[in-house]
Amino acid sequence: MTTRRLSSSLEMTSTKAPASRRGSERRGSELRMRDRRGSGYSSGLSSRRPSIDPSRLVPMDKTSHVGGTDDFNVVFIGAGNIMFGSDEGPWNHSFRFEHKLGLRLKVVAIVDPAIERANAVLKKKCDSFVVSAYQNTRVFKTLEDFVKNMTPKERPRAIVVGSPPMFRGTLQPGRDVEMQIMKHFPGVAIFIEKPIATGPKNEIEEGFEIAKHISESNSICSVGYMLRYLKAVQQMKQIIQENDLVVMATIARYACAYEAIAKPEWWDKSKSAGPIIEQGTHFCDLSRYFGGEVDISSVTAHSLEWDEEAGHLSQMRVDESKIAPENRIPRVTAATWKYDSGAVGSLAHVVTLQGRNYSCELEVHADGLVNPYVQPVLYVRKPGDDHEQMFTFPDDDPFFSEISNWIDIIEDIEEDPDAAQILSSYEDACRTYEFTWAIREASERSRAATMAAKRAATTVIEEPVAEEEKEA
Fold first, then answer.
1. What is the pLDDT of residue 379?
2. Edge-to-edge strand order for the sheet containing 367-370?
3. Which of 177, 106, 172 is nearest to 147 (CA)?
């Protein structure tokens, strides 16, 4: 059972720091320009992170194509669901690019080792009304193959990385696509899907090294934490900043519709790194977006595992018996932590819902965000007022907003202080990745301690029984 209504009881206190404009002041300094382009990192405590005036997040069907007559060359790395859509969710980057760029869009290459799949999605595009964007597209197995065969006219202006995270985010050959992009196309704009990686924890530092290279290259880089681009989220940020408030607590809940998840890799921790790192990362990131940096040493967590009485799922579409027991994912993960500011955060990720619709909530005292994957609703109770206001955003599409903002920055369209900007840089995404690993490790430590305690209790019980049998 879940409830779709979030009843907010919201309390915040004023910060002593002077009020500042949203981080979209773009021409004030080189640092702010770098933040706007996603090639720098702005830490800061509490909610002092880049934001966008929510009124500027225009629905896809109400926006105009980017003007101009020159071709806008794009390379898609990955021909899977995130790039070309699926029945599992609303993701489909190619669809948003087509609407944003119109006839200017030229997809010069699709890079995917699964050549047949790439050719299949390409054929569908060429048989549709967007054929002009794909009629000259070529398919390559690797980025290196594209580089060797590229003509000067095909040089990309932007590269979109939607390959599985297990194959990127490191400095290891074959899993270093970001470094390869910067090597062959220095300065090219890059959009990278979240999470940045799903490799072992000891490779996290390699992600930060990549972030450093991206920053030094001054590339316009954005990571796909699309929930930051929700109008509801940006209105929350606006209310916090306009009232000069400091966040005291974040409370997040993410309930996924597991019945719709048919990819075996998602259910295998050795491939996906588990639901917190692969999926719950969205709300870990959103929590950081409001609460600020996390004190990693403070993270504690518990989990409900597949082999516990309450962990049975009745509508799985994959055969879990084919996954090694140690790699099967937890059904529930509950975590708490402290932010560097002193604020407190919590997250519950649950694999419980059947059907297709997810149920997600975030409370930021003083704001509450309800179900952002389906129909975002924002409930606000401001300081000094018992009345609760409700805001709805029926046509909001954060997937389009993140792409639209990124392209606007590439085109350098606007000059005013509230112009589009990158809300999630690569380094910022690395910090979210580090945070999700801390939650996973904390839950695994908790499980190990519980199992050890149970084994110790069993041993204590069995020893007296053995003594009694000997005496008899």
1. 84
2. 300-304, 332-338, 344-353, 249-257, 359-364, 367-370, 377-380, 389-392
3. 177
How far is residue 192's CA from residue 158's CA, in Å, rounded to a whole number?
A: 11
Per-residue H/E/C for the chain: CCCCCCCCCCCCEECCCCCCCCCCCCCCCHHHHHHHHCCCCCCCECCCCCCCCHHHCCCHHHCCCCCCCCCEEEEEECCCHHHHCECCECCCHHHHHHHHHHHHEEEEEEECCCHHHHHHHHHHHHCCCCHHHHCCCEEECCHHHHHHHCCHHHCCCEEEECCCHHHCCCCCCCCCHHHHHHHHCCCCEEEECCCCCCCCHHHHHHHHHHHHHHHHHCCCEEECCHHHHCHHHHHHHHHHHHCCEECCEEEEEEEEEHHHCCCHHHHEHHHHCCHHHHCCHHHHHHHHHHHECECHHHCEEEEECCCCHHHCCCCCCCCHHHCCHHHECCCEEEEEEEECCCCEEEEEEEEEECCCCCEEEEEECCEEEECCCCCCEEEECCCCCCCCEEEECCCCCHHHHHHHHHHHHHHCCCCCCCCCCCCCCHHHHHHHHHHHHHHHHHHHHHHHHHHHHHHHHHHHHHHHHHHHHHHC
Say if CB 318 and CB 267 are below 8 A apart. yes
Of 168, 165, 164, 140, which is closest to residue 154 (Cα–Cα)?
Answer: 140
Give me 472's structure tokens. 């008899």
Phi (first) and psi of residue 404, to 5 degrees: -60, -45
Pick from 239, 264, 236: nearest CA to 250: 236
Over residues 224-261, the pLDDT tens digits come to: 999 999 999 998 888 888 888 889 899 999 999 999 89
By C-alpha distance, which of 217, 222, 160, 197 is closest to 423?
222
Rounded Cα–Cα distance for residues 431 and 41 (Å): 11
Segment among 9-23, 38-52, 142-156, 424-438 with least mean pLDDT: 9-23
**114 Cβ neighbours under 8 A, 6+ residues apart:** 79
pTM of the prediction?
0.85
